[in-house]
Amino acid sequence: RSIKSLTTSSSSHILRRGYASEAVPDRKVAVLGAAGGIGQPLALLMKLNPLVSSLALYDIANTPGVAADISHINTRSEVYGYSGEAELGKALEGADVVIIPAGVPRKPGMTRDDLFNINAGIVKGLCEAIAKHCPHALVNMISNPVNSTVPIAAEIFKKAGTYDPKRLFGVTTLDVVRAKTFYAGKGKVPVAEVNVPVVGGHAGITILPLFSQATPKANLSDAEITALTKRTQDGGTEVVEAKAGKGSATLSMAYAGAVFADACLKGLNGASDVVECSFVQSTVTELPFFASKVRLGKNGVEEVLGLGPLSDYEKEGLEKLKPELQSSIEKGIKFANQVV
Ligand code: NAD
Ligand code: LMR
């Protein structure tokens, strides 16, 4: 079976379905922003995922080279590169999962909300195209500020008449990845065994790791839990400062994005008990969107799980985060309704 890198509008991009020799169904994954700092390593990781049969790499520029490069890897999926807005529709057609790391990253001194003015418009345009070309795809939103870009996407889909809350996800997996790593380091427990739910949103104090529910249990003091919480909340800033003007987390984000997309694909394929934290439409709190554990299934969100028992420190953190998260959500909703 040949691996192709198709980079022009005239190229065929017919999906091949129904290979008897393959135990898993064909699945198309599209990465929007595929030539970027996250997009490239994320595309690489999706190329390594045996659940993917077709990988569409879209960006406003530079995708031909990325697609040609990745297409030489001898794994299952066929790779297609799409460059420029005229090719966006073809990139999206037939996609089961669309991952969006398109947009500008932070520089030192910036908040994620400082990215709103540029990224809101980018996300809006991409979501309009998704509504048109693959309205049933699961959308994995990575572009910041996630607390606003997910509500923007929801509003754009509502306007197009395609909104399905089960299919829209803000990717908060990097917060979970960080919480696991930091907890394992401090608690001296095997990192591969660690589980920590992270709830709320994806910016500063809206990121609320629930270390009281972490497993395996580690003997950590209140001061250590406070420090771990703060480090998880500031994890993105730690990377932004270390990169000193050259962007934000890309490699760890690509890993986290690949973990979350893999969970979506497993859910679509009918695997049982696939649970990841994600920022989704929610009734877990009074806020319309909230990150918590989510069970994934054949239609996307199967069940939004509750918060479980919280420590007093976590209860306090939950109340503190609500006003900021609410205002970021409202900002996204307002933007989508003003400009469309
Ligand atoms: P980057 O600048 O390296 O790459 C972004 C890519 O998006 C570029 O290749 C650019 O050409 C492309 N792009 C811009 N406009 C586009 C459009 N209209 N359509 C398609 N592609 C477009 O940035 P990065 O480091 O990859 O970060 C991307 C985004 O991800 C940022 O907003 C960043 O804040 C966010 N991020 C989120 C998380 C998270 O946990 N959710 C983690 C890290 C970064
Ligand atoms: C992260 O958490 O690393 C991302 O949201 C990028 C950033 O701006 O911190």
TrEMBL record:
The keyword Oxidoreductase applies. It catalyses: (S)-malate + NAD(+) = oxaloacetate + NADH + H(+). This is malate dehydrogenase. GO terms for biological process: malate metabolic process; tricarboxylic acid cycle. Residues 172-335 form the Lactate/malate dehydrogenase C-terminal domain. The keyword Transit peptide applies. Residues 28-170 form the Lactate/malate dehydrogenase N-terminal domain. GO terms for molecular function: L-malate dehydrogenase (NAD+) activity. Its EC number is 1.1.1.37. Belongs to the LDH/MDH superfamily. MDH type 1 family. Homodimer.
